[in-house]
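Hello, quick one for you while I still have it in my head. A protein chain has come my way and I'm curious about its shape. I'm sending you its amino acid sequence along with the backbone structure tokens. I'd be grateful if you could look everything over and explain what you see. Here's the protein in full, and shout if anything looks odd to you:
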Amino acid sequence: MSMREPQALDQAVVDQAIHWLGCLRFNQADEQTQRTFEQWLLQRPEHLLAWQRVETLGDEFAGIPAQLARQTLNGSHRGMRRRQSLKLLGLLATVGGAAWLGRDYTPLPAMLAQQHSNTGEQRHFQLDDGSLIQLNSDSAVDSDYDAQRRLIILRRGEIIVNVGADEHSAQARPFWLQTRDGIIRAQSTRFLARERDDGTLLAVQGGAVTVFPGSSHTLAGSDSNSVQAGHQLLFTANGAREFRDNGLDVWSWSDGVISARDMRLGDFIEELSRYRPGVLRCAEAVADRRVSGTFQLADNDQVLALVAQSLRLRVDYRTRYWVTLSAAG
């Protein structure tokens, strides 16, 4: 059975969708902006289709010139081969300039990673050394193994690693995880790493790991932090500090649930929004209400209904991709 060619989109429509992605992801949208976006989304079916494609591909498009983003968008939905995509990345490096490649850590875009998950999806896979990898929603990793070391590169999102014994290797190879903010060394252990706006969160469930904040190129001269089982750490390229628990069980997603204990509603909704496309938010008037419970991630709408019932909230679906919680009545 042949696959149908995805619907082609008008260039102007794709440009508009890229513009809205930048506005909604990286700016505090006011009510007028929200209404204007909703009106645009409902004007034509092509608008919704363009938004779905751009939003699914993630944050890469917010900083890329619209013409290059459009090429990437169209190519990624027409079976662009990896080699062709890498050529496009070379063009991005040349034309995009410092605004796109100006960070110390410049990974391949997550959409080209060897392993990735979609929004709302958790994936599991095993590597040749026996390591078990779990990817959370909208996450991506690459692996780079050689005779001397095992390296996983977190391109985006969140990962849980059960480090394998590497029994078939001729020599014991160290296990490394490279992140945006530094590099982690682990042995027989289970740990979690997550990219956040304020740094990279590391949580350890078994064994111990060592964190080297900053660039891997300066590893020999950098400070290190040892994290034992049961502890969490937040680190940036400039250092590390203790992570303050906000009531979320950071491990719960690996069981397909979101588990909260006296968690601020605003933080809970922000966390839940990671698992669904579009905009999910709550009104400031109810943001400080508290949520406790364990909820199945497979049905976000049911989670919203349960939380709304317990906290006396109203759930407004302006569209499937724009949902707001506010006080009932």
